[in-house]
Amino acid sequence: xxxxxxxxxxxxxxxxxxxxxxxxGIEEExxxxxxxxxxLYAIEEALYQRFVHQGTVTAVTxxxxxxxxxxxxxxxxxxxxxxxxxTEGSHGTDTALNVxxxxxxxxxxxxxxxxxxxxxxxxxQGLFGIALAEHLGIPVIxxxxxxxxxxxxxxxxxxxxxxxxxxxxxxxxxxxxxxxQFGIRPVRYSSIMAIVKARSRKIESxxxxxxxxxxxxxxxxxxxxxxxxxxxGQCQMLDGAPAEAxxxxxxxxxxxxxx
Amino acid sequence: xxxxxxxxxxxxxxxxxxxxxxxxLTALISVGIFAYGVWLRxxxxxxxxAVAQHGLTWARVRETALVxxxxxxxxxRNALAGWAHVLIFFGFLTxxxxxxxxxxxxxxLGLFGIHFWKGVFYLWFSAxxxxxxxxxxxxxxxxxxxxxxxxxxxxxxxxxxxxGTYSRLGYVRDDTIFLAILFLIGATGFVTExxxxxxxRPDFEVWSFVGWQLANGLSAVGLSRAxxxxxxxxxxxxxxxxxxxxxAYIPYSKAIHILVDSANLLVRDPVAGKRLPAIxxxxxxxxxxRLEDLTWKDRxxxxxxxxxxxxxxxxxxxxxxxxxxxxxxxxxxxxxxxxKLGGGSLLHETSLAHDGSAGGGLIKPxxxxxxxxxxxxxxxxxxxxxxxxxxVQMRRNLVEQGVMEPNLQKTLEKIGSSGNSFGEAAQxxxxxxxxxxxxxxxxxxxxxEYLWFVGDYASFDPGLQEITRSVARILHRTGVDFxxxxxxxxxxxxxxxxxxxxxxxxxxxxxxxxxxxxxxxKEIITTDPHTYNTLKFEYPEFGGEYRVRxxxxxxxxxxxxxxxxxxxxxxxxxxxxxxxxxxxxxEVTDAPRAIMQAxxxxxxxxxxxxxxxxxxxAGGGRIWMASPGSEERPSHQxxxxxxxxxxxxxxxxxxxxxxxxxxxxxxxVQGAGHIQVKEMIELVEMAISETVPALS
Lengths: 259, 696
Ligand code: SF4
Ligand code: SF4
Known about the structure:
Organism (chain B): Bradyrhizobium macuxiense
GO molecular function (chain B): 4 iron, 4 sulfur cluster binding; metal ion binding; oxidoreductase activity
Strand content of chain A: 15-25%
Oligomer: heterodimer
Protein name (chain B): 4Fe-4S ferredoxin-type domain-containing protein
Structural class of chain B: mainly alpha
GO cellular component, one term (chain B): plasma membrane
Transmembrane segments (chain B): 15-39, 80-104, 124-145, 177-198, 204-224, 231-252
CATH topology of chain A: Rossmann fold
Bound molecules: iron/sulfur cluster
Mean pLDDT of chain B: 93
C-alpha cells in the first residue's frame, strides 16, 4: 500500500510572534519552527497502516528551505521517503498553490491513501486536505479518528468525530484522503539522536518550475491585515485563606451582576 | 604408640596407598570441575563488549584491598551482617591459608624432604586455625539466623511480578547449601581433629584448643580411644569430600562471589553514575536493548550480586511501591544472561507463569522509568555493583523507541524546543531578576568572579523565585562579584541525561558550553545540586572544565570568614534533608551543616542522613513523570521520618526541587502542619535580617 502524508513546517507556539510592519505577515526573525502537530498524528497513522498492511509511507512538505526540518522529523518517526517542494516566496499559507503542487507530487508518486493533519497550527485554515481531494477528485473524510483498511485494500472503514462526542462511520473506496484529528493514536517521542541521524537521509527536492506551477498563479486571495489578539477578559488573583477568598469572590460576582 | 617429641602430625594418618591415591584423584576431579565452571564464566565475560575505561590502577588495587580487608562497605549499612561476614571471611581465609601451608609442606617442599610444619610453628598454627575455624562457625551461625529471620529483603519477593508467577526457591536453596556446606566443613574439621586427639592424645595438641576440648567432651560421653581411631578415618573422609564438593560447587553457586566480587570491586568505576557512559559506537541502538549490548564489566556486575538486599531496602522507588527493585533488575538480567550465555548458577529463579512484558527490551519499561537515579542502591551495595548506569543505558533504548509516559514526552519536547523544562521562551529566563532592586551582571558582557548557573526550577518556578532572589540579595550585599548567563543559560541536562535522552543532553551541553564560552569568570556556583553534578562530572568530557561549587559551599566559607555576619541567630531546632545530588553525587554534606550551626540552628539528624539520605522522589526525570507507586510517596515517607524527631520546626533543604517536593509533603502528611520546609538560604536571610534587609 502506498501512503502519502503531508507535513507543514510551522512556527512553534513557544514564542509569541510579532506582526510585520506591512501587517500582512509575521516577522520571521527570532521564530522557532516545528513540524505541525496534527501532521505528526497523520504520520503516526500512516506508519501504523504500513505496519498492518505493509507498503511505503512518503512524507511531503511544501515550503521554504527550512521546511526540510519537518521531513527530518518525519524520517525520525520512520517514513520511507521524504519529498520537499521548494516554495521560497510563499510561507506555506497559499492553499491554492499548495494544492496545485501537492497534486503534481501525488500523481507522480501514485497512492492508495493520503493522510494530512486536520489543520495547520499557524493559519488554522483546515483547507489543504479537503481542497487537495477535490482537486484530485477522490473522496475525503475530515476529522478522522480511526481507519480500518479492508484486507483487499480496496475500501476502508473510517470513523470521524462529530460534535458532542458522537461518531460517524463511513465506508470509503480507496484511494481516498483523510484529514486526521488530534490524538488518533499517540505520537511517539522522536529522540534528538534520531532526528540528527535523519538529517543525513536523502530528501527528494522538487521545484515549482519543474512542475510548471507559477507561484501565486492560482491565488485569488491575499492577506489584507493581521492583528494581535485583543485583551478581552481580565484576571484577578484572590489571595488569602480559602474562606476569605471565597467571600471576596462572591462579593465581586455580586458587584458585577453575575449573581 | 610412639610419638616424636617434635610436635607435628601425619597428613595421611594410617592411610593405605590406595586411599591416598583416591584422595588425590578426587582432589583433581574437584579442581577440574571448579576450573571448568570458572572458565565458563570467564568466557561469558570475554564475550561482552569492550569497556572504554575501567579504572584499574595500583591505587585501585590498594583501595580495593582496603575495602575488602576492612569490610568497610559491608559493615556500613548493617553492622551485624558486616561483622558476621568478617568472621566468616577471615575464618575461611585462614583455613584456606592453612590448607595451602600444609600442601606446600607436604607436596611441594616435602618432595625434597624439607618440612617446616612442625615444632613451635605447628603449635601456633594449630591454635590459630582452631580459633579462626571457630570464628567461621560463629559467623555462619549468625548469618543463618539472619537469613531465616523475617527481614523483608530475604523473602526475595519481586517488586515487578505478582506472587505466584515465579519462584525463587532456587535462590533460597543456594543460600542454604552455601551456608550449610561451609558449616559442615568447619564442624567435621573440628570433629576429625578431636577424634585424632582422642585416639592419640599427644600433649602438645592442647594447643588445638577447640579440638582438645571436643576430644574431652567425646571422651566424657564414653567414646573410647579405639573407636575414635576407627571413626577418625570416616570423619576425615567426610570432611575431605565436603571440601572437594565445595570447591567444585563454587563457580556454580553464590560461593563464586568470593572471586567475582573481588574482581568487581577492582574494576569498579569511581565516578559510576555521577558521570554516565557515553554512547558506544559498537551498540546497534543508542542504549542497551539486548544482552549482547552489555560490556564484560556489566556482565561481571550481574554475577557479583549476593542478593544481600541492601539496595532493595534503600531504594525509594521500591519503598514507594513502584515496580523497581535495583536488586531485581540485577538478578533479572543475570538470569537472562545465564540462560543465554551460560556460565552461571545451578539453581535459578523459575517462571511459573508468563508475564513477559519487557516490550522487546531487557527489563519492563515501568520498572526502568521508576528509578530516580538517587544512587542509594550503589551507595549501599557492598560489592560495587553499578545499577544506575545500567538502568540509564536501558532507558536510552526506551527513549529511542519512544516508550515513555506522555508527561515526560511533553517535557522533553519542551526542553528540545525551548531549552528549559517549563517550555518558557528563553527571554523569560531571567525575569525573576526584575523584582530585585539591583541589576545582576551579565557574565557574557562583563567579567565576574562567580558565574551563577541558576537552573530551570530556580529560574521559572514562581514558588521558588523568591528563594532565588534571596541568594542574589545575599551575594549582592556581601559584595560577591557574580553574574548570570541570562537567556543564554539552558537546562544543564543532568536529568535529561538520566532520563536516557542522550542526544538532547548533548544539545544542551553544546548550547551551554557556547554560552559559558562567551562568559568570563573564575568559578561556577549552582543553586541546583543536579546542575552541580553534571557540570562537575560530565561537562569536562565535552570540553567544559570548570571549578564548580554549590552555593552552600561558598556561603559556608563566607560565613566562616565573617563576611556574612550573623546578627540574629535563629535559636531553632531543625532537621536537614541531604539532597541525593549534593550528598551521594557531589559529596557535599559538611557545608550545609556548618551553615546551620553558624546561624544558630540546633540540628537533629534523621536516621538516614548524609550519604544514606532518602531520595525525595524527584530525581532522574521523575519530577516530569506522573505514574504513581502503590505505596506512600517517598517524600511523604521522608516527612514522616522527620516527624519522628522531637520539636523540629524547620525541615531544611538545599535544592530547589526539594522545596517543591517537601512543601507538598508537609501539606499532605498528617501531623506535619507545624513543620516549615525551608531552603537553607531562607534561614540564612532570616539570621542576617538586620545586616541584609529583605528588599523585594
Ligand atoms: S538509583 Fe535510587 S531509585 Fe534508582 S534503583 Fe537505585 S535506589 Fe532505586
Ligand atoms: S546489588 Fe548489591 S546491594 Fe543489591 S542485593 Fe546485590 S549485592 Fe546486595
